[in-house]
Design a protein that fits this description.
Helix content is 40%, strand content 20%. It is an alpha+beta fold. Helix 1 packs across helix 2.
Length: 177
């Protein structure tokens, strides 16, 4: 949990200072952290844990209950299930509208709540939350800790959903018809 908080703080700090302050040292309690080194390490770790679109699609297919055949998958692993596709004029447009409305996470808002679901047909978890039929897949390869708990997994899923909500990019559409 401490690592997630430090990463969040560093990300916020990094985005708020000029580029020539990259080597600034930040004090976080008893920890001193050099911004440039830490952010470069986190970027390298993130890059090594990213799944390809094909891997993401295959895992989400296994994660979804087979009775749901109409769904849209976004770049960071958030997907939206549609109950009745015949009532939707354009599934891409509708999914994008829903993602922009329910995807972004705001402090104190309902999108901050989540539930972590352990999967049985594939490795990983689904993070459910605000927005009917909207879920985010989290792969074990994205978790840096071997003993990650539901809170850490949920926070990662929520951050991935936030990325999809702020910049929705559809990578796959599954239709029954």
């Amino acid at each position: 949990m401490k690592a997630i908080n430090i990463i969040t703080i560093l990300t916020l700090l990094f985005s708020c200072h000029s580029k020539n302050e990259n080597n600034k040292i930040v004090n976080l309690g008893s920890d001193q952290i050099k911004l440039n080194d830490t952010l470069n390490n986190q970027t390298q770790k993130k890059q090594s844990y990213e799944m390809s679109d094909k891997e993401l699609i295959e895992n989400v297919k296994l994660a979804i209950n087979p009775k749901f055949q109409d769904w849209v998958l976004f770049k960071h692993g958030t997907y939206i299930i549609f109950d009745d596709i015949t009532k939707v004029k354009n599934i891409n447009d509708e999914a994008t509208v829903l993602m922009k409305e329910y995807g972004p996470v705001f402090a104190g808002g309902p999108a901050g709540d989540f539930n972590t679901i352990h999967l049985t047909k594939t490795e990983g978890w689904i993070v459910a939350g605000h927005g009917y039929g909207m879920y985010t897949y989290v792969s074990p390869s994205e978790i840096q800790s071997q003993s990650a708990n539901d809170m850490e997994i949920g926070l990662l899923g929520r951050s991935k959903r936030d990325l999809d909500g702020k910049k929705p990019e559809i990578i796959y559409v599954n239709k029954s018809k």
